[in-house]
Amino acid sequence: MPLIPMVQCLSEAERGGYGVGAFNVNNMEQIQGILQAAREVNSPVILQASRGALKYTNLVYLKHLVQAAIEENPDIPVVLHLDHGDSLETVKTVIELGFTSVMIDGSHYPFEENVAISKAVVDYAHDFGVSVEAELGTLGGIEEDVVGEVQLTDPDQAEEFVERTGCDSLAVAIGTSHGAYKFKAEPKLALDLIAEIYNRVRIPLVMHGSSSVPRELVDVINANGGKLGHSFGVPIESIQKGIANGVRKINVDTDIRLAMTAAVRETLFGDPAKFDPRDYLTPARAAVTKVVTERMRAFGSAGHAGDYEPMTLAEMKARYAKA
Ligand code: G3H
Ligand code: 13P
Ligand code: ZN
Hints:
Blueprint: H1 6-16, E1 20-24, H2 28-41, E2 45-49, H3 51-56, H4 60-72, E3 78-85, H5 88-97, E4 101-104, H6 111-126, E5 131-136, H7 155-165, E6 169-172, H8 192-201, E7 205-207, H9 215-223, H10 236-244, E8 247-252, H11 254-270, H12 277-299, H13 313-322
Parallel strand pairs: 1-2, 1-8, 2-3, 3-4, 4-5, 5-6, 6-7, 7-8
Helix pairs in contact: 2-4, 2-12, 5-6, 6-7, 7-8, 9-11, 11-12
Bound molecules: glyceraldehyde-3-phosphate, 1,3-dihydroxyacetonephosphate and zinc ion.
């Protein structure tokens, strides 16, 4: 199956009432581990690459690793997405590379500038049938010490933003943040905002910073020479509540990083004589599969890989042209 457009993946998720995990990838073991999970639970999947990932893989390795993954898994619908695109230039580069979806993150700009850059990306990408995710509001914990820096997504603005940009999905700020240190105590998330925004925009919503930071992984890392502070991630139940109210794409990177690091540390601490990378990357890859499988089940995408025939970018282009 060729890579599918994000629009198709998320509208099928909408139809089925589930969410699709978007997992960040940088190397072969992550891509293999994620696709193995998709195969095991028969789930569609979104692979996403940040600008850091593009640099790390020098573009061409990423392109061909993903190509290998879809060749090996013809029955799994896969979207290849640019995570946190910063400019039209980056968007052009990845569309050339074969990405079927891009994010333009103008959330740090004032509203009008965010509208302008997002609309420019929509106009460009839709001409290739490529889907566009934009972002409104800024990520960050809703905790006393960061109040003021964080701007939750405003439903009125969201409606105007979607109307004016024509984006296909919207990343919203509801109190999550990126990385392993999200909350010092029980998470506070503005989950009610999700339904309010969805009712106004009626397009799939995206939750960034959705790692759950499992305590057991942090404990394994620390028991094997690591030094990570304890913190709280996003509870799976909160994500499920989000999915019930319009979230269709859930971004997870940190949990995969933690799972791999725990496996590598455990292996090398368990046998300090090991030095063949396959000895520690094999368990690291299996750890990716384990965490991703759990997320696919929890988000409800498991079992949905065979629900639909893939749409091509040419078909999407024609659909955009008619709209
Ligand atoms: O949102 C950020 C993702 O976790 C990607 O992180 O820029 O370090 O690749 P990165
Ligand atoms: P986490 O750091 O919570 O995994 O979030 C990843 C993300 O939002 C990528 O865009
Ligand atoms: Zn993000």
